[in-house]
Amino acid sequence: MPERGSEPWVMASMSELLSFARAMEQEAVDGYVALAARMRAESRPDLAAVFERLVAEERGHLGKVDEWLGDRAAEPVNLAEPLFDDEGAGVVAPELLTSYRAFSMAVRNEERAFVFWTYAAAHAPSDEIRQAAERLAREELGHVATLRRERRRAFHELRRGESGSVRGDLPALERRLSDLLGEHSGRLAGLANEALERAAALSEDPPGVTPLLDHVSENVPGRLVPLCEFLLDCYLDLAERESAESARARMQTFASDMIRCLYAAREL
Question: What's residue 259's pLDDT?
Answer without folding.
Answer: 93
